Every structure is written in C-alpha cells, then in structure tokens.
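name: query_chain
kind: protein
chains: 1
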Amino acid sequence: MQRLACIFWLGLKEMVSLRRDWVMMALLVWSFTLAPLMEATGVASSVNNASIAFADEDNSPLSRALSAAFFPPEFQPMVQIEPGSGPEHLDAGRFLFIVAIPPGFEKDVRARRNPEIQVLIDATAMEQAGIGASYITNILSTEIRRFAIGADLVDPAPVDLVVRSAFNPNRDTVRFAGIVALIGQIMWLTTILTGAAMIREREHGTIEHLLAMPLAPFDIAVAKIWANAAVVLVAAALSLTFVMQGSLGITIAGSKALFLIGTALFLFTATALGVFLATLARSMAQFALLVMLVVLPMLMLSGGETPVESQPDWLQVGTLVLPSRHYMAASQAIVFKGAGVETVWPEFMWMAALGTMLLTTSIMLFRRSVAQEN
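structure:
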C-alpha cells in the first residue's frame, strides 16, 4: 500500500512539473485543439470550392446545361469567360479549371460525330487537379448521356446501379480525417511527454535524487506512465467533446466511454514506448530522432492513411505488433460503425499485451541504465 502511495505522489509531482513547463503545455493545447482541426479541414482529399470557368462557343441548350451542372460545395459558381482566354486566366491564377466547348457542339452530338471538349487545368494544385479532372469528366459524361437519351440518340443503360456508402453515406472526409488526426496527436504527444520527462530527469540530475528515496526503478517508470497518460486522456476527452463533436460536428456512432477505454489502453502502450525510447536515448536530441524513426512509421502503417489491406502481405503481418494499428481499428469501429465490446475486444487485448511487453522491457533497460550510472 505504501508503494502505491509513493507511485501516486510521484505521479502528482510529474503533473506539477508538466504544468510549470510552458512549452509542453503549449504543445499539449495545440495538439488537441488547432492541430486536429487544421488537419481535418485544411487537407482535403476531395474537390472543395474549386474555381471553374466556361468558354462556351456553342451557346446551345446542351452547352448551357453542361455549364449549369457544377454546384457548390465542390465547385464555386461557374464564370463565363471569352473563348480563347483560358491560358491567360490560368497564368493569372484566377481559375483552377476551365472548360472550353467548341462551336457546333450540340449539332455534332446530334449527328453522332463524337465532338471533343477541352478542359484546361492548373496542375500546380496537384491533388485537387487530379481529383477534379475525374469529377469534371464524370459530370460532363453524365450530362451528355442524359441529353443523348432524351434525344433518342442512345438507349438507356439496361442496369441501373445504386451505390450506397456504409457508415459515411455523404463520404465526408472531414469526419474521417478529424478522428485520424486526433489519434495521431495522441500517439505523438504521449510518447514525447513520457520520454521527455525521463530525459529531463536525467539531464537535470534529479534522477539520482529519486533513486536516493525508497523508490525502485519500477516505481519511477510507472509513476511517469500513469501521470502522462492521465493528462493526455483528459485532453483527448476534451478534444473529442469540444473540437471533434463541437467544432467539426463529428458524430460518434458508438459508445464514447468505450472509445475512451480503448484510448486509455493505447496510452498505456504509448507511454511504455516513450519510456523505452527514453531509456535507449542518451540525450533529448537522440530521443527526438528515435521518435521520428519509430512513431512516424507506426502512424503511417496504422491504417489511418491507407487501409492495412492495401499493404503488402508481409507488411500486414508485421503491423500486428504495432499498437497503433489495433487502436486505429478499434477507434474506427467504435466511432464510425457503432461497434461494441464484442467486436473490439481482440484489439483491446492486443494493446494490453503489447503494452505489458513494452513496459517490462522498458523497466529492465531502465534498471540496467541506472546500475551503469551508479
């Protein structure tokens, strides 16, 4: 009982030290407010508010229908420009897309001559340009086919395909990106806070003061783990409530409490990883490099950026030892699909097992490093 009390008070001491570290406090606030907000809304993987212009030399009912087929929020209100002025507008950066319809376009369509439409794209906006080209092609093709069917130029398709997107019917990228951004910040910050606390004790020489007390290396490591995990868990809960649900309007399909339980398990694993990396590093600079080499690949392979199923078979097997993969899978199942404990318990067990292994290894290395210093 006395040992638990020592771990508890040592953890409170860690929280007080964190409160006095204004740089870490600023990083904590930034990571759970503006950072996920900017990542969710600022990096779009779909066309949004793209500027578009039409150079209509045909001025027919079909060409006017084509120009009226582009709507917000994907595109800005369409602007008519003078034929032949497209390159000038692109050079000036006024429009991202310019559609040029040649004279006699509708007449050629009715005569089945397969006329061409020119689309000019400012490809300096690479992602928007590539996705927008597909958007424009689909919209123009759909409108031309609708016109051709109405004019009895082609027969209607024998099969009408109806596509329904499960769990995200509007295909809202903000909803998905917001949760992925929050998970990424949890991973980064937890590892950094715990590891930096260990390095700070060593660089300031206070680790010897702690070891002079009736404390074992296990007590010191566990105190830092629970203190930093508690701080990040509270920050994550506030971010989920006020940033994700409040500012971004993200709805949680499943249990918020279950999501936080999974987050707590993941924090246990991430803080143990922070202790492990801090034990390997001899300075803050080395620790920062280790974080980049370890945490960044963990985030990239977690399934948030690209599905795990899209990775090579051998890499999919390797990601089973990454706690970020199991946390990402459990979080997405809870938040987007409304999954319960009966679905996510294997991921929870994986995180608990990996966290226990990391903690055991970290304490063994920490004891060895303390013995070498003494």
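note: The chain is about 65% helix and 5% strand.
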